[in-house]
Amino acid sequence: QVQLVESGGGLVQAGGSLRLSCTASGRTFSRNAVGWFRQAAGKEREFVGDITWSGTITHSPDSAKGRFTISRDNTKNTVYLQMDSLKPEDTAVYYCAARFSGVVGLAREYVYWGQGTQVTVSS
Q1: CA nearest 5: which of 95, 101, 123?
Q2: How far is residue 16 from each of residues 3, 11, 56, 105, 119, measured CA to CA in Å?
Q3: CA distances (Å), 15 to each of 86, 87, 93, 111, 121, in order?
Q4: C-alpha distances in angstroms, 121 versus 15, 27, 43, 114, 116?
Q5: Which long-range contacts does 57-61 make (Cβ < 8 Å, 24+ apart)?
C-alpha cells in the first residue's frame, strides 16, 4: 500500500510559480511511475504529466504547454511539479497518482491517488 500526499498548493498571481510535491509513505514507490492530474471546478480530470521510475517524462501538450516540469527524487520518495508562468486557467485541484505500468495518462491505470492540493491563480 502506498499513501501519497501532495503539498505546495496555494494562491498565486498570474505569471507566478509554484512547486508541488508528492511524497509517498507506506512503501517506497521508486519503481512506480507517478503522474500529475488536475481537475478544475465543473470539468473533467485532466492529465498533466507523468514520470517513470527511471526518469522518463511525458508532458501533456495541452495542459503543460512547456510551462510545467516534472522531476523526482527517489531518495526522498518525492515527485515534484514545477509550474511557471501560471495562468488563471491553471486553477484546479492537482493530484498525484502512482501506477505500476499501463498507459501513460489514463487515469484508471493509476492505482494510488493523493487527496489533492488546491492551486488558485488570480488575474
Answers
A1: 95
A2: 29, 10, 26, 26, 12
A3: 5, 6, 18, 33, 9
A4: 9, 34, 17, 21, 16
A5: 58/104, 58/105, 60/105
Instruction: Tell me the sheet residues that pair with 49.
Output: 36, 59
The answer to whether 77 and 23 are in contact (CB under 8 A) is yes
pLDDT in single tens digits along all 123 residues of the chain: 789 999 999 999 999 999 999 999 877 667 789 999 999 999 999 999 999 988 899 988 776 678 999 999 988 999 999 999 999 999 999 999 999 888 889 999 999 999 999 999 999
Instruction: Using alpha carbons only, give the angle 73, 98, 25 rounded to the nearest 5 degrees.
Output: 60
- Are 22 and 5 in contact by the 8 Å Cβ rule? The answer is yes
> Using an 8 Å Cβ cutoff, are 81 and 114 in contact?
no
117 beta partners? 94
